[in-house]
Amino acid sequence: MNIIGEVYDFLKEKDVKAFLVGGAVRDIILGYKLSDIDIAVDKDFLSLAEEFSKEKGGHVFLMHEDVARVVIGDFTIDFCRMKGKTIEEDLKKRDFTINAIAKSLKDDKIIDILGGIKDLKDGIIKVVYPDALLDDPLRMLRAFRLKAKLNFKIEENTLNLIKKNYKRINEVSGERIRDEIFKILDGEKSYQILRELDEVSLLSEIFPVFKRMKLVGKCKYHTVDSFTHSMFSLKTFEDMIDNVLKTKHGEDIKRHLEEDMSGVKRKTVLKLATLLHDIGKPKAYKKEGEKITFKGHDVTGYEEFQDIDKRYNFSKEQRSLITAVIKGHMRILGLFKVGATDRALYKLIRDFENNTLDVILASLFDVTATRLLLDESGERERYFNFCMELIDRLYKKKELPKKLVSGEDVIKLTGQKGRFVGEVLDALHEEVFLGNIRTREEAIDFIKNNYAR
């Protein structure tokens, strides 16, 4: 089904002025594959969206007072109220010149009154008008996201406007900022873009904890501050991931990272988790004589993330992954030092469930980033091998065994209720995981012998 052609045919039959606008025209000129389009119309956009959706078997959503979204399969069509009485007025109110190009659905005529096509050829991202960033401060982030996607340069005046107005990002809803950050992290070179966001003060405005992380972190194990290390961990993620995907379970890991998490790839959420893994260090900082420690920064990191989550409202599964990495990244290093027994692996899977692989990977990138800056005497290679062996054991186990008895069984056998029941079941499940118990009868005997009155 040629959805763009279907939209063209549908609107040409209507007594309506309709134009393809925004990034779709830009991407058509650049030869990019389209997955969404914006249509500006001079009449009732919502009625047109509802009629088209009904005719084509799609779903329609009112995004806000000026936009109705139609979703057909994996394709998205936004029907938009024209900004002004003419398409020319509409284009003058858009964000960047490369997005201010229109194409008439009546005669395919290209309307480019602001030099957008020239800026496309020159690889320039430039605001349409001086107050474009003030009218919607999210455009500051979008400029860098477009730079990453198109490999363009942000025009100097536009960059200066961002440097001058970076604090205005706080006027934007957390959800919109979150989605834009995820779009940046979805790219293969997000580390470089985040570095540039930090250079214009935007990144620390979005995550204020980064300001405090720049003041702490250097210690026996780190030659740089916590923020620099966290950024370097993200860079290590992007540099190493191809090598990880070439290992024994590479295809399984790739499928895992491609999973959808509320409209975002798991890999993208894991990138953010890697960036945030040490946010607890400023609160955990302690200096005893010449010794600096950050003991418990996994706990303070979880507390710090609560404030971030209130601002950006992550989905339940995104939140679960990020908190798992913050809480669990030090667990993996601990296992490396003392040995990863089967009991330790059980507790890891019990605590982090489907996020266990993510915790291991984040720890790999974290430790590797640290050891790249230290004389680590081959520890970097040993840690890589350790993590890959741990992943191999994880895939052999796949998941915790099915439950052989229920909470009600425990109550009947022991006569006790409450937290005690959970403790018994956990001990039982551990023995099942270790292969010491295989049948329901053996499980009942275990409870009778160890917990019954």
Tell me about this structure.
By secondary structure, this protein is of the alpha+beta class. It contains 24 helices and 13 strands. It has helices at 3-12, 23-30, 45-56, 87-91, 116-122, 132-135, 138-150, 156-165, 174-185, 190-199, 202-206, 209-213, 226-244, 250-257, 266-276, 281-284, 297-312, 316-338, 342-352, 356-371, 379-397, 407-414, 419-433, 440-450; strands at residues 18-21, 36-41, 59-64, 67-72, 75-81, 102-104, 110-111, 124-125, 153-154, 260-261, 264-265, 286-288, 291-293. It has a seven-stranded mixed beta sheet. The longest helix is centred in the last third of the chain and has 23 residues, at 316-338. It is globular and about 85 Å long. The chain starts with a helix and ends with a helix. The model has no long low-confidence stretch (mean pLDDT 89).
Compute the CA-based radius of gyration: 27 Å
Number of strands: 13
How many DSSP helices? Answer: 24
Q: How would you describe the shape?
A: globular
The largest beta-sheet arranges its strands as 3-4-5-2-1-6-7
The largest pleated sheet is described as: 7 strands, mixed
Low-confidence stretches: none
Arithmetic mean pLDDT = 89
Structural class: alpha+beta
Distance between the ends: 69 Å
Sheet-strand content, in percent, reads 5-15%
In helices, the fraction of residues equals 55-70%
